[in-house]
Automatic annotation (TrEMBL):
Residues 25-87 form the Cathepsin propeptide inhibitor domain. The keyword Hydrolase applies. GO terms for biological process: proteolysis. GO terms for molecular function: cysteine-type peptidase activity. Residues 1-15 form the signal peptide. InterPro entries: Papain-like_cys_pep_sf, Pept_asp_AS, Pept_cys_AS, Pept_his_AS, Peptidase_C1A, Peptidase_C1A_C, Peptidase_C1A_papain-like, Prot_inhib_I29. Keywords: Disulfide bond, Hydrolase, Protease, Signal, Thiol protease, Zymogen. This is Peptidase. Residues 123-345 form the Peptidase C1A papain C-terminal domain. Belongs to the peptidase C1 family.
Length: 348
């Protein structure tokens, strides 16, 4: 239904003032937003106004795409009616963003441009780990209304290692990360549950404590803060971080390390446009590259019509991008990407 609504939008969208006609809002409510509910008429009106802002962005994007000014399209997805406050919940809050900056400023890279194990690795012109993994990657997941992107990205990097190198398809518990890595770094107050965290801090804690992450099937995701609720033991198989590495904000290093080690977690600034992304190679001139507030996973790269791109896996469900995956312009440090990258080696 979502893809049908997008095609209808592209084919028939007009540029009239959205406040004079809410046909698009009614259509969205009947399709993509059919399961959305509001507290009262005032609450619905607030979300209708938020939708109108999204509608303007989508219309502007359509015109720019038709003129060949951009290489991507936006759509009125499930985030289209979200208010700024609701969208902010999906990202790290201001305190976590600040703590993240301080932490990274004091972080010494474990891999750099002089690392001989990386620089001798021959690069391919394009690559997608989905095509080379021994086992299928687990399904795209949705972090919901919780700023837990770091738990999803850090755990997917581990899941990908298991699929690629061990022929194991499994989903690791993101809630375990939220419950067990709360304020594990007392100096920076990272991680902070649904308020945000950092992949590297997650790997540090798992490695230092020798804790294994249980599977989602036995430790389900609730998307809520449960302070001091880390269990001493869990049932079923668990998977440990044998070691981990991280590197600086270098797209060249990311390309090399991705080929050598597998999918890698990366930071990015997630703007409203990014949240409405549908297809193509995303590029944004006005995003705040210094305000890194979201974590995704790079799984590959390539080029289309002379434009280089990264392939990203997100944690906003399958209605974002193409089934939860997207393409980001490569070679421009787009929206601060990749910021500080991290990846683990997994044992079990």
């Amino acid at each position: 239904m979502f893809s049908i609504w997008f095609l209808l939008l592209v084919a028939g969208i007009s540029c009239q003032d959205p406040s004079t006609d809410r046909a698009e809002w009614k259509e969205w409510r009947a399709t993509v937003g059919k399961d959305r509910s509001y507290q009262n008429a005032n609450d619905e009106e607030e979300h209708a106004l938020a939708f109108e802002k999204s509608l303007i962005l989508v219309k502007e994007n359509k015109l720019a795409f038709e003129k060949g000014e951009v290489h991507y399209t936006l759509a009125l997805n499930e985030f289209a009616d979200r208010t700024d406050a609701e969208l902010a919940v999906l990202r790290m809050d201001a305190e976590s963003v600040k703590a993240r900056k301080e932490y990274i400023s004091n972080l010494k890279d474990s891999v750099d441009d002089d690392d001989s194990t990386v620089k001798d690795n021959k690069l391919r012109s394009s690559f997608d780990w989905r095509q080379y993994s021994k086992a299928k990657f687990p399904e795209i997941e949705d972090q919901g209304s919780c700023g837990s992107c770091y738990s999803f990205s850090s755990m997917f990097a581990m899941e990908a290692q298991l699929a690629i190198f061990n022929n194991i398809t499994t989903s690791l518990s993101k809630q375990y990360v939220l419950d067990c890595t709360w304020y594990v770094d007392p100096k920076t107050l990272l991680n902070r549950g649904c308020s945000g965290g950092l992949d590297i801090v997650t790997y540090e804690w798992l490695h230092a404590n020798g804790k294994g992450v249980p599977e989602t099937s036995v430790y389900e995701y609730t998307g809520e803060n449960r302070v001091r609720s880390c269990p001493a033991t869990t049932s079923g198989p668990t998977y440990k971080v044998k070691s981990f590495r991280h590197a600086n904000n270098s797209e060249t290093l990311l390309q090399e390390n991705l080929l050598r080690w597998g999918p890698i977690t990366c930071g990015i600034h997630a703007s409203k446009k990014f949240q409405l992304y549908y297809d193509g190679i995303y590029h944004e001139d006005n995003c705040d590259s210094a305000d890194i507030d979201h974590s995704v996973v790079a799984i590959g790269y390539g080029s289309e019509n002379g434009v280089d791109f990264w392939i990203l896996r997100n944690s906003w469900g399958t209605n974002w991008g193409q089934g939860g995956y997207g393409k980001l312009m490569r070679g421009t440090n787009e929206c601060g990407f990749p910021d500080t990258t991290a990846w683990p080696q997994v044992t079990f």
